[in-house]
């Protein structure tokens, strides 16, 4: 049976410039034209879920500046329900992104309103959800807000541990699945092969999905470990791949799809996302 999908997370204005290579410390490089677009891990994942056919309710905040109005309309235009999106005094979130010719990126985020998402509003919304619903969260909003969401709902809780940080054991225990790449997994599970990382993580979470970039993803739960390989595609920009993966996976779970099949949908979405410039298709 299909359920509702709620995405708790950040929404930013992405300012992106292409460069031949990333600058060294203290170095100035000339880049290409500046492009502006809708971004933030929460917004990216919500838009990816909408592209996958599930219109999510978005929980987050924008500022009272003109950027906030643009972000709100951008989310709505992407097929996301913005009825619960807060407007908070002050600036909206902004991400400064450089993309090199090899497709790799660096990102610096000024959190703005994302850092002031209200925990009480989040609790009131997610506590009304049912067990067949899904909550998808990341870590570009305050950790205590994410913890409140996981502790206040009977819905399936999915956490993308990005940006990587240590999180309380009770938050990990609620994850079904925890979505991590190898760097994020190593932060909380130590160094090791992808198979070793998921084996160490699995006792601490209900299920785990470890993304492997061009090699696809590992899925681990009570049924064992499975490897979903990614199709070979031309890589233009890796900025949106992880968020496209998480959004498509959560959308599939909300439709009632099993985790293994949902991860396959995530791999396909991630492979598609590396073929355009920016976090979302223009």
Automatic annotation (TrEMBL):
BP terms from Gene Ontology: D-ribose catabolic process
Catalysed transformations (reactions): D-ribose + ATP = D-ribose 5-phosphate + ADP + H(+)
Residues that, per the record, bind K(+): 237, 239, 273, 276, 278
Keywords: ATP-binding, Carbohydrate metabolism, Cytoplasm, Kinase, Magnesium, Metal-binding, Nucleotide-binding, Potassium, Transferase
Compartments, record wording: Cytoplasm
Any single Pfam family the record assigns to this protein: PfkB
GO molecular function annotation: ATP binding; metal ion binding; ribokinase activity
Cofactor, how bound (note): Requires a divalent cation, most likely magnesium in vivo, as an electrophilic catalyst to aid phosphoryl group transfer. It is the chelate of the metal and the nucleotide that is the actual substrate.
Organism: Diaminobutyricimonas aerilata
Entry's family note: Belongs to the carbohydrate kinase PfkB family. Ribokinase subfamily. Belongs to the carbohydrate kinase pfkB family.
Protein's UniProt name: Ribokinase
Cofactor(s) essential for the protein: Mg(2+)
EC number(s) given by UniProt: 2.7.1.15
GO cellular component: cytosol
């Amino acid at each position: 049976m299909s359920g509702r999908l709620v995405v708790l997370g950040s929404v930013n204005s992405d300012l992106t410039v292409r460069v031949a290579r990333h600058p060294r410390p203290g170095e100035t490089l000339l880049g290409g034209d500046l492009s502006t677009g809708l971004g933030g891990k929460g917004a990216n994942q919500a838009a990816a879920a909408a592209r996958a056919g599930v219109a999510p309710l978005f929980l987050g905040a924008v500022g009272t500046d003109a950027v906030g109005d643009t972000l709100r309309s951008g989310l709505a235009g992407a097929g996301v329900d913005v009825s619960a999106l807060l407007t908070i005094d002050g600036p909206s979130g902004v991400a400064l992104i450089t993309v090199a010719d090899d497709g790799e990126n660096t990102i610096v985020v000024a959190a703005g309103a994302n850092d002031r998402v209200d925990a009480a509003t989040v609790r009131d919304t997610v506590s009304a959800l049912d067990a067949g619903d899904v909550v998808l969260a990341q870590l570009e909003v305050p950790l205590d807000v994410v913890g409140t969401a996981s502790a206040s709902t009977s819905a399936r809780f999915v956490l993308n541990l990005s940006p990587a940080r240590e999180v309380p054991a009770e938050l990990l225990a609620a994850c079904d699945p925890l979505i991590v790449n190898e760097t994020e997994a190593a932060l909380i599970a130590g160094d090791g092969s992808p198979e070793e990382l998921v084996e160490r993580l699995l006792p601490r979470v209900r299920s785990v999905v470890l993304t492997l970039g061009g090699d696809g993803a590992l899925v681990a739960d009570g049924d064992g470990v499975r490897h979903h390989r990614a199709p070979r595609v031309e890589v233009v920009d890796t900025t949106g791949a992880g968020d496209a993966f998480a959004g498509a996976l959560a959308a599939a779970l909300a439709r009632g799809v099993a985790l293994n099949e949902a991860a396959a949908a995530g791999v396909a979405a991630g492979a598609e996302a590396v073929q355009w410039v920016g976090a979302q298709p223009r």
